[in-house]
Amino acid sequence: MKTIYLLFFFISFANSSFAQEDGENPLPFIAQESKFDTAPRFPGGTKMMMNYFEKNMRYPEPEKFKKIQGQVSLKFEVDKNGKIKNIKVLNGVAGGPNLAKEAVRLIQNMPLWIPANKNAKPVKSEYFLSIPFQLVH
Question: What is the mean pLDDT of residues 89-94?
Answer without folding.
Answer: 96
